[in-house]
Amino acid sequence: MSTPLFWRGVLMTPTLQFIALAVLAPVLTGCSYAGLVRPSVLKELNPRVAALVNELPNVDHPNNHLVAKIYALGGLSHAKAGRDGVMRAGIRVPKDQYIWEPAFIVMPHAGELELEFDNRDQAIHMAFLPSNGGRQLLYLPVHRRGTARITLDQPGLYWFGCPVANHAGRGMLGFIWVYGETPKEARLDRPPQPQPESD
Q: 136: left (phi > 0), else alpha (psi -120 to 50), else beta?
């Protein structure tokens, strides 16, 4: 005989449990997030991943599937501005995983970004980073830290990765999202484009 459960002070007999499950099953199985409640997935839901899931609605549609499928384990972090106006964020390379944690850095606006990398892996890595007028390359020896300062003066989606061997192909790719409006002088000079009608 099964033991009855209590939910918010209400006795949940086996019959009531069955009815509740029958009512909720169609809702849960039809929900695209139902897979998130598996124990194997729940252990991956750290604050960085939660931040990434929360940020996705604000990302333009063509990128939604890409970021959700490839980089979900790395998570997301918001760069924080210091008193000197420079935004800062930390990124680590966990042991034997070939990912950046976080894999997404969000800048609230264009400007200077200082990234501190912590290589906790047993392999040598490099960070190939975007910056105005070109890219920067930061060497990351085994169990060492390194810092790079880059400048991104336009809103947009920028990528970074590890160019060593096939590390980028194994998952060491990341993005920097720079929010803000593009200055008028930097916008394309073209007439307004037709937009789909909203209901």
A: beta
